[in-house]
Amino acid sequence: DGGITQSPKYLFRKEGQNVTLSCEQNLNHDAMYWYRQDPGQGLRLIYYSQIVNDFQKGDIAEGYSVSREKKESFPLTVTSAQKNPTAFYLCASSRGGRTGELFFGEGSRLTVL
Amino acid sequence: GIQVEQSPPDLILQEGANSTLRCNFSDSVNNLQWFHQNPWGQLINLFYIPSGTKQNGRLSATTVATERYSLLYISSSQTTDSGVYFCAGQGGSEKLVFGKGTKLTVNP
User: Fold this and answer.
1) 8 A C-beta contact, residue B11 and residue B21
2) Among all residues of chain B, which has the CA nearest to that of A57?
């Protein structure tokens, strides 16, 4: 089935460690996005990519990094510079252009101890 | 940037009741979407509705672009409708902006 796969679903890390969250899609979508969700809040955009080998910062990019080497993959690294990394991370994709319909993965819940 | 306001923030219903959720935008949007987040965190796209009315089963949505709002109707609600409903809009920028959501609880 076509869709977006995020892994891992749950992740625990010690403070000061970098962690990479995986996002893979087989929808043949050009655009991919990473969002962060905190309890009781809406979604905030971290990074997005509209084409392979290109990406732009969203509203809260500090402390995060991404790469887009393949159309299907858009991994997110939460670095030690991110001051408050514990959150729910959601990856999404769309056909591209002016966003279009957005489809989400199941999310990755990161807890930093 | 565009501001998105959702109301009410919380809604509690008995199974079988109808409800209306509202989304207001501070500026014109040309991309408007409604999502449902289930209790496990999964976000499902319900409607892509920059204007007009669409229906899907017990759910329907109406966007009045000239007045900068959208409504999501849920009829004959079921316990599986519980969760958080988000609307998101996009104006002149490339980024979709999400509201803070309406948390719906449907009791049996």
Assistant:
1) yes
2) B95
